[in-house]
Amino acid sequence: MDLGIKGKKALVCAASKGLGYGCAGQLAEAGVDLVICARTDGPLQEAADRLRGFGVKVTAVACDITTQEGQAEVLAAAGDVDILVTNAGGPPPGLWSDWDRDDFIKALDANMLTPITLMKAVLPGMMERGWGRIVNITSQSVKAPIPALGLSNAARTGLTGYVAGTARQVAGKGVTINNLLPGIHDTDRATSLDGGVMKAKGISRDEARAQRFATIPAGRYGTAEEFGAACAFLCSQNAGFIVGQNILLDGGATNATI
Questions:
Q1: Degrees, nearest 5: CA angle 104-162-60
Q2: Model confidence pLDDT, tens digit, residues 162-200
Q3: Could you tell me the pTM of the whole model?
């Protein structure tokens, strides 16, 4: 399928690896020029070099996108963009009794306020030009909260509420905003959570993964590539009638009718 976005420019956050890189890769394959960011320069530059193999322009900015300084640096480098994919690592797991106000503020800064800041920066230009696509990478936890991820549940659900209203205010200008809700994908985040299961239950990594596979009807973890393909479709010319939606990519793990 021709996505119809060759020659567009996208800003993709946390794109040196994992789901962010999966999205950047699929957009690059569709002919989209990229501005990518991540905290660590070495892996980011390596990712940029791989993405240039698709024949697109790639600008890499090493920064912490969750800070005001990082946001300003990335936005200055990006200029006018047609596509925005927001993404940031999730807060650490724990119990409700572990977290204080500072923990919640940090989670909100990273997983709610950072995407909102980036959206507010790019939306005026998109609306003026009459076309734009924004995809926020959130979590399956906004549909079905995960007890150990209370910080993430709270921050990402707040972002979801913001998008629900905002998406409907800008759709008439040719701009769509949607959220992609990943379940467990085979990324560093999954490996970290596998380690938590290993430690808690005193089992091997293979056993931990097998136990987690059993919670997913598809019987496996997702891949960054298939996640990126879903993102690229939402960014395409073909997705202009998809507005304010929360799309699960979790292998059926969320047991819900709607």
A1: 75
A2: 999 999 999 999 999 999 999 999 988 788 778 878 888
A3: 0.95
